[in-house]
Write a structure and sequence with these properties.
Layout (H helix, E strand, L loop, with lengths): L6 E2 L4 E2 L8 H12 L33
Antiparallel strand pairs: 1-2
């Protein structure tokens, strides 16, 4: 089996480098959920650091990743 990334002996697991957030993909997934095209229903309104006040999926957001 090929390794997925560098091995972190502290976590005892393979780790991957963070990828940039694709807001168009996230908004498309949200749209699919709202249209009932996913396996489960929408759990609630959009929330978290990636949501803008206007609800525009085109706006960029900064997210900090714990190291």
């Amino acid at each position: 089996m090929a390794a997925m990334g560098p091995y972190d002996s502290t976590l005892q697991m393979f780790v991957q480098t963070p990828q940039p957030i694709d807001m168009s993909r996230l908004s498309f997934m949200r749209w699919l959920a709202e249209q009932g095209k996913l396996e489960h229903r929408v759990a609630g309104p959009p929330s978290g650091p990636l949501v803008t006040r206007t609800g525009s999926a085109q706006a960029t957001a900064t997210v900090s990743v714990a190291a």
